[in-house]
């Protein structure tokens, strides 16, 4: 009886292991398709890429695409989610170091990714098809900016709990403010090709430094608190009072 139970348990374990391996393989294949499709979409645009061209790159058949995504539009939505995740997953919110150090690290990790050439191309693509493919635009906003707002606001809320940032302000509103200070002007200049590629690193550093400084000046508990030097008041007795206080000398 025990041997039968052991055999059944081993069979179940083997079956679970095989199923897990199959799921992992399927997920890997799916990611390969998404990343290959993303490269084509970014290079040539949504309308100019066909399912057949994607298959020629990743291999397989139309059945592979349809079984995993349903159609080209759903595949593009998977691309949107993947590229947004590439940005948000790299935002560094480790609570290590000073408040300014944490804010700077978080801001730089975000800006460096969102202003990378690949993500700038992604912004252009989503913007260009937003009218004819509104669902992709809404998905981009939910998985991109909205997720960044949440990540920033969670970090801000933690700093509020720790007494580092003013607690009388809404964390989400502060997160949106910080987000817009970091990439508001920057994203426009890169999208319109007004910025120079050789100045990328310099501009990122300048923007991060200024945005973090302004943000913490307005929000940090001890920001701008300058201790004025103590004023030492010395009271001098008037000559008359001083003279009166002197002991009388008997003549």
Automatic annotation (TrEMBL):
InterPro entries: Homeodomain-like_sf, HTH-type_TetR-like_transc_reg, HTH_TetR, Tet_transcr_reg_TetR-rel_C_sf, TetR_C_Proteobacteria. PROSITE patterns: HTH_TETR_2. GO terms for molecular function: DNA-binding transcription factor activity; transcription cis-regulatory region binding. This is Uncharacterized protein. SUPFAM superfamilies: Homeodomain-like (SSF46689), Tetracyclin repressor-like, C-terminal domain (SSF48498). Residues 1-25, 225-251 are annotated as: Disordered. Residues 1-16 have a biased composition (Polar residues). The lineage of its organism: Bacteria, Pseudomonadati, Pseudomonadota, Alphaproteobacteria, Hyphomicrobiales. The keyword Heme does not apply. Pfam families: TetR_C_7, TetR_N. Keywords: DNA-binding.
């Amino acid at each position: 009886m025990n041997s039968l139970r052991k055999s059944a348990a081993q069979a179940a374990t083997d079956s679970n292991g095989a199923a897990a391996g199959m799921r992992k393989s399927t997920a890997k294949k799916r990611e390969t398709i998404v990343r290959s499709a993303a490269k084509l979409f970014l290079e040539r645009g949504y309308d100019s890429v066909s399912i057949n061209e994607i298959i020629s790159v990743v291999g397989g058949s139309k059945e592979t695409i349809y079984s995993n995504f349903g159609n080209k539009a759903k595949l593009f939505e998977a691309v949107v989610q993947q590229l947004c995740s590439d940005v948000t997953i790299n935002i560094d919110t480790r609570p290590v170091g000073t408040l300014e150090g944490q804010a700077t690290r978080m801001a730089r990790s975000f800006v460096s990714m969102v202003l990378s050439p690949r993500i700038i191309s992604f912004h252009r693509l989503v913007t260009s098809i937003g009218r004819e493919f509104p669902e992709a635009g809404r998905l981009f906003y939910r998985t991109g900016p909205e997720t960044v707002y949440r990540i920033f606001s969670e970090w801000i809320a933690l700093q509020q709990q720790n007494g580092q940032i003013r607690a009388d302000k809404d964390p989400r509103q502060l997160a949106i403010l910080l987000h817009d200070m970091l990439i508001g002007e920057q994203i426009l200049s890169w999208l319109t090709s007004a910025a120079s590629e050789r100045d990328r690193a310099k501009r990122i550093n300048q923007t991060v430094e200024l945005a973090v400084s302004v943000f913490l000046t307005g929000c940090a508990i001890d920001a701008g608190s300058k201790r004025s030097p103590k004023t030492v008041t010395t009271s001098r007795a008037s000559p008359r009072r001083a003279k009166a206080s002197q002991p009388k000398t008997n003549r």
